[in-house]
Every structure is written in structure tokens, then in C-alpha cells.
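Thread: quick sanity check before group meeting

JM: Hey all, I'm pulling together slides for Thursday and realized we never actually wrote out the predicted structure for the chain we discussed last week. Dropping the sequence here so it's in one place. If anyone has concerns about the input, flag it before I start.
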Amino acid sequence: MRELSNLRNLKVLDLNSNNIESLISSQDEQNLRLVHLEVLDLSYNFFNNSVLSFVSEFSNLKALNISGNNLKGLVDVTKFGALRCLEELSMSYNKLNQFVSTNANTSFSKLKSLYLNGIFLEESSVPAQLSLEAFPSLKKLYLTNNYHLNQTMVIQTSQVLSNLEELFLDHSPLSINFLQNISVLTSLKSISLRDCGFTGTLPTQGWCDLKNLEEMDLFGNELLGILPFCLSNLTSLRLLDISQNQFTGNVATSPLIDLILLQYLSISNNNFQVPDSFKSFANHSNLKIFLSDFNQLVPDHDHVQTRVPKFQPRVFTLSNCRANEELTKPPSLLYYLYDLRYVDLSFDKFMGDLPYWLFENNTRLQVVVLKNNSFMGSFRLPSQPNLDVWEIDISNNQIQGEIPLNINQSFPFLSWLLLSGNDFGGEIPMWLIRMNSLEMLDLSNNQFFGTIPKEFVTQSSLLYSLRLSNNNLTGKIPPGIFKSQSLNALYLDRNNFEGEISNIHVSNSSYLRILDISNNNLSGELPRWTKNVTYLQELDLSNNHFEGSIPEEFCYNVDLWLLDLSHNNLSGSLPHCSSPSSPYLSHIYLSKNRLNGPLAHSFLNISLLEILDLGENNLSGSIPTWIGTFSSLSILCLKGNLFFGEIPNEICELDQLRIMDLSHNQLSGHIPPCVGHLIGASKSLFSGIANWELLTLISDTSTEMESTLMQEVNVLPEKFIQDQVELVTKWWSHTYEGNMLGYMSGIDLSCNQLVGQIPLEMGNLSDIHSLNLSHNNLTGPIPSTLSNLKQLECMDLSFNGLNGEIPSQLTKLNSLAIFSVAHNNLSGLIPYGKGQFGTFDNTSYEGNPLLCGPPLEKSCKETNSQPKVPNSLNEEREGSLIDMDVFCTSFLVTYVVVLLSIGAVLYINPYWRQAWFYLIESCGTNCYYLILDNILRF
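JM (edit): ok, ran it. Output follows.
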């Protein structure tokens, strides 16, 4: 730094991103003597608050950038007091909570631009404070990405910024009341409020009074209802973005028709009704960009287009808009447009012939996107060459025939030609190699046959993406195609290519990043030359007939992040891939081969691993404890192997895991209770949308807001190889691929030897969709906590030893489509007929002898029909047909009457008395001798 002091006349010094902590020499403690310095950039270093005193010595400084450093807490702008010439100050992305001026006399009268983005990112015990009284001439203020910004503070600050012309508050939470309190900003020309969390309807006061407003951005809020008519007061508006909201109403009767100075209008992703005549915009001669995707296109029967309108946009997008079956053709307005540069009518289900007249009428057309419609017929070319067209996308229509022979003459500078998903046929035309400007060619999902011409790629110097997937191509793959120095992405999957590719010599000059030759008939050993493809990122050789072992060379592609060798005949042990040689390897698919041996240390220390699929091989041994080191792992599939032992507790450290399939192994022991804390909320795992900037299509100059908005018009992305994983749900094996994987979650531990009870903690898996614990030796009751699994669609607990009753709380699972507890020892009444449980038949409950009630034929009354044992005298009496009290009384009375009657007869009649006593004497004598004879016998 000492050498910089010698540059006395230096005016511009840029030291950004250099890990600098201080500019003061540790030896002489002297500052830089750069008295003429006007521009100083110290951004993204490690400076702390002491740097403020240091920079204040540069009195001629006009622009200062100290963003992205370690400034914290309070910043007092008084410390900049000597910088009277300062015009631009940027302190974004520091950890501040107060930006104030402690001296009322301090004034930066020349400061025009202030950047304070992301300074209130973190919540602090000290209330955030923002004071801008020291900047009376401020014209541009950036306060984006301030998640803890106080709305009241912003409103109070705006009271002193009467000269402010541009205000950016994107991604800073505000309420709708904010728009009612900004009318004091009378000089405001541009305001950006993207993703600020506005809800409800737009107010009719405040913001509508900004007569000088030229640019307004309300993208990505939750505003609804019709547009207020006070919007028509903003007659100076030339840029308006209200997309990604929930606005309604007919555009033809909205205040938009009064804003005739508009140059840019985006109403996409709302619920507007857009008449197909577009007559309400007929006089909008300044409107050059019109974006109306994801709305409702409605027919206008009262209007017939007969003349050329003043409305002549250069960018016109109307994708995903057809909601009315009457609208089978593109809007008639398009016939009368002659200045289009970019047109997108994709996903509208339009029918009829391909609108080739778009090329005839618009001689400066550059991009045409007509994908995912139902256009038919052949691909007709314009009568005159079009020198500006560089992209044509007519994918997924019903276009037939061969590719036009003279397409290279009609569009000599065509870069992207996307024809997938049609009915094009014939051999791949040789003349395509004469299209010297061609960069991306997609002929996938058609009816092309024959072989790939050997010269096809070697003579195409600019071609970086070639997609020939899902055709009827045959023969061997030309070796030269792997040696191309321009090709980045090569998709030859789902054809009938055959032969070996292991002996091809490929040098380090290949720039291939994506190679997909899956689903063919390729054979032989796996190629070892992949290690020479230095920049290879995605490699898919699945669904072929490769055999032999997996070469260690596959682990030495530094940039490789996806490796798919599944569905082959590979054998041997797993390769030892580690972090130093494969630092970015995150998606590994080796399922459905004949691999054997233990996991050992095959993928140890690959910290970025997200998907590991080793299912349906012959791998053995125990699941290693180091499996818990994969902190990013979201999908783990080890099904259909020979793993044994217990499920290690370390598997519970995989806090990003969404799918775990350990089924069809020989695992034993208990289910770790911590498994109940594995699966978190759904998230999207994959993305790959490329944006295209349309700035050059409008004018040579553009504001910063316009530049941001231009990037929202999407073109076809360069699609990566889609991830896919098989998971058994609803008794079927489903293959989830692409973005669907991000929303699927499940645990499959079926067909093992697990014992013990189902952990209560499994009720914490609130976002799980599939749970399969069938065909184990589990015992105990079904936990009622499983009723917390509100997203569950499939629960299979069959073929275990579970007992007790089925918890009635499970009837709260309204998303449950498949449920089975068959072949257990469950008992009691089935909670049938409540919610989803009313849809399950007897197969869900069979094999449980003690279960009763619908849908089983066994009635619970039969179970309760055995004789009841009385448990008290009262119960015995209540069940008798005789009143015992009455019986005893009557018996006693009768007995007494009989005795008295006998006594009276004997007393009155002597003859009966003598006979009675004689009878008694005879009976006594007979009994005596009977007893005496029996005793003497023994």
C-alpha cells in the first residue's frame, strides 16, 4: 500500500474483493496521501468502522463504495463531514442498525445517490434507526433487502427528501398503508416495490398523487381486486409492472387504457381478462413491450380488425392465456403487427397452420416462441430471407414432414432451432452442417431415423448443444462427436444406438459438460476416456448393456456432479470416490446392476452429496456410521440389497433427508426413535431457468429499473439431465423425476427383520407422504401419534405382529389414499366410515381374526354373544324368571301348614297315630341293620 502514496494525482482507486482489513501501514502508521482521489471502491473486504475516519481525509472524493465489509452497529455520517464533494455513497450489506447524523449542521449538499441495501438484514436488540436529514439534495435512494426495516421510519425519512426522484425498496417488508403516505415525494419519478409483501387492494389516495411518476414496479406482491381508477392520474407513466399479483377485471375497462405514454407494461401472472382484439391499446403508440402471460384471453365478438393499429409492440408475450374454447387461433391483431422482435404464444393450445406470416410481416423479428400448441401442417418458410431471426421454437406441436431444405438461406444467422415434440421425419439432413451460426439444435421426440452423419458435429464450429433424444436413430455413434471442441451438451438418449464406446480416444480438448447416451443398446466396458473430458459435469450412461467394473477414472472428473450408471450389467465393488477427486459430486445413481461387496469408504467425505441410489444390487455388510456425514443428502436408496445389522443412529443426522428407502434387505433391531425427526418441510431441489435480456430490442439507452425488468422474459432453458428415483407408494413403484422429487417425501423400511414397537416419534414426520413398514416383525400398538401425519397419502403396516385397536385418531388423515394393516394381531372395532377410512375395503384389514365391523363381514355383535357370568346376587336375581322372595315365603308357609295338618290328624285319630309310630319304628330298624351289615362286611 505504501507505493500508492506516490501516485499523487491518482483519481480512481478500485480495491474491491481483496480481503483487505486496513489501508494503514503497520510500519509507519501513515495514511495514503491521495489528495486528488475522486473515486474509491473498498467494497467486499474486511474493513470495520475505523475505515470511516480513514476515508474522511480524501476531501475531493466524489464516489465512495464500502459495501460488503464488517461495519456494525451505529454509523454516524458526521464522520464523513469533510467529504463535501461526495456525490455517491454505497454502504450496502454491512451489519448496521443505525444510520444517523448526530450533528444537525452536517450537510452533504452534493450527494445525489445513496445505497443502503441490506443493512438491516439481522434483527437487533437496538431498534433500527435511519436519519437522512443530512442529505437534502438526495435524488436516488436504495433500501432493498432490508428485512427489519421500520415502515414508520421510512415514511418519516421521506418527509425530508423533497428532491428524491428514485426510490427502491424491493424485498423490504411494508404494509399497504405505505402507499397512502408517499404523496409528499412530489419529485419522485421512479419507485420499485417488488416483493414487499403488500396485501389487499390498492388504496385510492397517496400514491395516485405522484404526477411526475414515470416508473412503478409492484411485481410479486399479493395485491388483488380491480385496478383503482386513480391510476389514470399517473399520466407520465412510461413503465409499469404489476405482474405476479392477483388483480382481476377486464383490461379493456381498466385505467390502463388512459396511460398512453407507457413504453413497458407487464400484467403477467394475474387474473385479468384480456380481450383478444386488444382494441383498448390501439392508440398506445409508445408501448413497445407488452407482457401478458398467465391471464385469461377472452373473445371480443364486437370488434373486427380492419386496419393497422398504432399499437406496434416490439415484445409481445401471451403464453398460458387461452381459457376459452372459442379461441382456437392466435389474436387477429398479430396479422397487423409489423415491428415485432420477440413474440411468445406458447402453451395456448392454438390450432391451425403454423403462423408463418409472422416472419413475412415482421422483417426484424428475432425470437419466435410457439411451443406447446396444436399447430399442424408443414414448416413453411418466408418468401424473403430474415437476417435478424436467431431463435425459432416450435416444440411440442403437430408439425409434419421434413425440415425445410432452404432454412439456412431463409434464416442465415439462426442460432437456436428447437423442433422437438413434433412429427418431423426422415434422415437428419446433411445441409444442417452448413448453418455456421447454429448454436443449439433440438430435434428430440420426432421420427428421425438412420445414422448420425460423421461430419455433422466436426464441421459445426459453434454448435454447443445437440439434442437428438427419443428418435429412431441407429448404428454406431460417430467417435468424432465426443471430440468436438465446441459441443457442451450432447443428448443421444432413447434411440437404438449400438456398439462399444470404450476404445475411443478423446483428448483434453473436449469441452463436453453434459453427456446423455442413456436408453440405447450400447455394450462393452464403460469408457475410461471420461477422465480426459476435463469439464464434464453430468454423465448419464444408464439403461444400456455395459458390463464389467466401474473404473476409478469416473472419480477423477473434478467438475462432475451427476453420475448415472443405473440399469446396466455392471459388477464388482463400488469405486472409492472421495472429496479431493470429486468435490462437487452430488447425484449418484448406480441402481439395478450386479455390484457387490460392502459400502466401506466408497463415498466418504463427499460433503455435497444430495442423492445416493444404490438400490437393487448385491451389496452387503452393515450400513456404515459415516452415512451421517452427508449433511446435504436428500434422497437415500439402498433397497434390494443384502445389508444386515441395525439401522445406525447416525442416519438421523441427515436433517435434509426427504426420501429414505432401505426396503428388501436383512436389517434387524429396532427402528431408531430419532427417525421421527428426519423429514422436514417440502422444498424444491432443482432449478434451471435461463433468462434473456431484451434491452437491445427496445432502445440503445435504458434505466436501471428497465434493465432489471427485461430479464423477466424467459426463453427456453438449457435443460439438465432430470433426476429420477423409484419409490413404492400406493402399492406401486413410481418413478419421480425432475421438480416432482422436491415435493415427494417418504420412508420405506419394508421387507426386513425389524422388531420392537413403532416409535411414537414417527408422529413428528408431519410432511411425509409415504410410510411403509410392512413385512417386518414389529409388535405393540399402532401409535396414535401417526394421526399427526396430515400429508400422508400411503401407510402400509401390514404383515407384522401389531396388536391392540386401530386408533380412531387416524380417521383425521384426510389425504390418505392407501392404508393397510392386514395380517397383524389387531382387535376391536374398525374405525370405518369416517373420512378417508370409508374408502378402504376389506383387503386393508384382512388377516386380523379379532378385528370386526365394516368393511369386514364379521360383526362385533357376534364377538359379544357368549354367556354372561353374573358378578353379583342382584344381577343373578335380575336375570331369573322367579321372584325368589315370594318363593321362599310361600314355601315356608306351606311347610308349616303341612306339619300342623299331620299333627292334628294324629292327635284326633288313634288308629292313624298307632300306624304312624309303627312306620317310624320299622324304618328305624331297617336302617340300623342295613348299616350294621355294611360295616361288618369290611
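AS: nice. Residues 910-937 form the longest helix (28 residues). Residues 681-702, 705-720, 729-734, 866-881 have pLDDT under 50 and may be disordered.
JM: adding both to the slides.
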